[in-house]
Amino acid sequence: MNPTWSLGFLVTSLAFWPLSTWAHANSAQAGDILSGLAHPASGLDHVLAMIAVGLWGAQLGLPALWILPVAFPMLMAVGGMLGLVGVQLPAVEIGIAVSAVILGALVVGQIRLPLPAAVTIVTFFAVFHGHAHGKELEPGQDALLYSLGFVMGTGLLHGIGIAIGSLQRWEEGGTILRATGGLIMTAGVYFLWDAL
């Protein structure tokens, strides 16, 4: 696959995705494994942060390539449980927006942190993303199936980031990854502005 075509496809897809769509905007969609699976992809803020986790993992290489996309959903599930039981977290919207800014910046800068520091960063943000999802489960719905679905959906988005990250094998791939990180960071700034 041509790396330039891949970047063009990503940019075009993002351009047609409504910026007003947030991963935690429509609680009426919550309820079962299928709605949970689709829920992470319903909001650009969540999508971009999840892709950034995969991109950064790909830049860091093994073992981060697999540890980050596993650690994130695990702590996201913890955040989801906090949201389900009504525990309040401060500034959830801001935390989600900042996650896209920081993760995008890490990809742009090709920042190579020790694995424990990288895991700490992604799991910190995972709690905010999970909390937002958990708060949206309507009374009477199946929390376990919904949670399982949104964890699986998040894993698929990480996989997309890893796949895009594989472009770094080509000469122009590093530039494409940094450009994608820049797009994610810019969108994160927009979300942060909107959240403030």
Distance between the termini: 40 Å
What is the residue-averaged pLDDT? 81
**Cα shape:** globular
Q: Please, how many domains?
A: 1
Count of strand segments:
0
Q: Report the portion of residues in β strands.
A: under 5%
Helix content: over 70%
Instruction: Sketch the topology as an H/E string, one letter per element.
Output: HHHHHHHH
- Classify the secondary structure makeup into a structural class: mainly alpha
Explain how this protein is built:
The chain has helices at 3-15, 33-38, 44-60, 64-84, 92-108, 115-135, 143-165, 173-195. The chain is mostly helical and 196 residues long. It is 72% helix and 0% strand. The longest helix is centred in the C-terminal third of the chain and has 23 residues, at 143-165. The chain has one domain. It starts with a helix and ends with a helix. It has 8 helices and no strands.
Question: What is the compact description of this entry?
Answer:
With 196 residues, the chain is an all-alpha fold.
Write the topology of this structure.
Elements: H1 3-15, H2 33-38, H3 44-60, H4 64-84, H5 92-108, H6 115-135, H7 143-165, H8 173-195
Key descriptive features of the protein:
72% helix; 8 helices; globular; disordered N terminus; 196 residues; mainly alpha; single chain
